[in-house]
Amino acid sequence: MKQIFIQTAAADLLGKAAQYKKDGYRMVQILCTRVPEGYELTYSFDKDYVMENLRVVVPLEGSVMSVTSQYWYAFVWENEIHDLFGLNVEFIAPEVDYGGKFFHLAKPMPWHELANAKQPAAAVKVNLRPGLGVDAAVKPAAKPAAPAAKPAEGGN
Amino acid sequence: MSYIKKSPWLVHYDGSSCNGCDIEVLACLTPLYDVERFGIVNTGNPKHADIFLVTGGVNTQNLPVVKQIYEQIPEPKVVIAVGTCACSGGVFRDCYNMLGGMDKAIPVDVYVPGCAARPESIIDGVVKGLSVLEEKQKALAVPVREKQALRERELEPEVAINKSQEAGK
Amino acid sequence: MGKSTVVPFGPQHPVLPEPIHFDLELEDEKVVKAIPSIGYVHRGLEKLVEKRGFQEYVYVAERVCGICSFGHGWGYSKAIEGLMEIEIPKRAEYLRTIWHEISRLHSHLLWAGLGADALGFESLFMQCWRIRETILDIIEQTTGGRVIFSVCKVGGVRRDIPDQELKEIVKRLDALKKEIDGVADIFLNDETIHARLKGVGTVTYDEAVALGCVGPTARASGVPQDYRIGDEGGAYKELGFTPVLATEGDCFARVKVRLLELYQSLDIIKGCVENMPAGDIAVPVKGFPPAAEYFTRVEQPRGEAVYYVKGNKTKNLERFRLRTPTNANIPVLVKMLQGCDLADVPNIILTIDPCISCCER
């Protein structure tokens, strides 16, 4: 399946959504991923089984305009994003803005924190044995001379 | 199984189940497995039920619901946890919204494992539950003379006190 | 001005197999507004990708829903195969299509039985589920499980169906056709069912498009929305496919579409068996998913489901997202419930074929 991703600024979102609506596109879903910069939103639109995705990155304290003025049924995903991620979606159509009470959860905004799995293994420093330098664990194997020099420095 | 002594009615509720065990519970009622010939009826009203068949794990949203249904069922009652998710949380036990198996919410009498639990296992679990129900019924039964005395004390306290004083003389 | 009341519907209700809650604001017997409240079945399993390896996660993805189980396993596997650019053998593609269509048969018959039960037609419920047992026998014979198949994996399928067995299965499904005829005859011609379902919960073509509904709910209003038309690869493209449509858009039209889809699924299975290619059933999967993302779709019995995966070069995926058809059909349900009678609420909710565990994941 062809993957089309179009980077968009948050300010242009409503305009692009209106254009898609005029061209007869159907909105498929809104997806949110927590990334180090904040939230990465993907708005998917479909026509004749070809899907185009708008990619918007919103900072942590930022907010995004609701598209319910163009696509009324987007309220399901916008309420869900607000409840699960804690992202502020502004101006959802009043009759379907459930004010945080759409999705009931044990812990509010469970996706708000960044996942721990993002720590790459090489960043963890390990003290192997006294005398062996801390950097020996992450030294690449292609330089055999360097580890031999290190223990002398580490020992001192 | 003492099928003549009791016709147990069951109420079924889905906690956080994926539906697999629920459709196997409903499959027990259908012509191939047919538990209705033993007098087991699936009722929607907890106040009419003896057996509480519960599937899926517990999350904070359905914890008060499960407790409320459990309290509405009159004594003696039996709780049967159907499926691995109801027993211990299943594949979802590490999820953020799950508290665990059904025994985190209500006391469970029979555990039926399986993912999804087969109708044969569910029927076996219900039969085991019936023998637990019989034991509970015996433990609950109050001798007739005591029951009569209790009722008299409630309805006409003075008559009851006079009777006991006369009996004591 | 009539008397206003608020009636809580669910989560425990005799007609609902799954917990969902609606606060129905009534004026006398008419529903003025329906406010949904979900979260009873929310397990948060999308976050479980961080703890389970990408190949192991198929087992979790399958258990999103017990009725649409195979479709979810297929969608997830297809998404990872697209992400890692793995091409699976043709035979695996056809086997997956056969299992998915058998899954559609069992899902529609299950739904028909529950719909009849909600109307009070218990005997029809029993007959639909009795017929369904033949299909579950076929599933158990070929995969080992009645409800959760666990036969789809990243790279293909885990079991093969020998050609001789496939021919026998087609013979059994042909015998099943007569029984489905009997049940469909009652559904389509019974006066009480007409009286209770015709004209109830009508959704026009324009409303269906404006509300973004998917699956038989959309097809009953005349919208030709079926991902099997647009699928770029797979057996559907090679066999050719036209969706089943109806125009009235009421509850009765949705029943009609699902019953006709039963016959269509039988034809698709026959076509797959006749054109079954020979070969392997799986390819080995090496390495980890790259740091890229991939969208794919599957036409589940309830509608189009969208699967999104994002890899990060490790054993665990960064993100997995599943937009299920019931999730897309909630807006149309909220709209349909406005202005209906209280007695029609269970029928309307059941005609979109709600799968709340899919919706809430």
Automatic annotation (TrEMBL), chain A:
NADH:ubiquinone oxidoreductase 30kDa subunit domain span: 17-90
Protein name: Ech hydrogenase subunit D
Provenance organism: Succiniclasticum ruminis
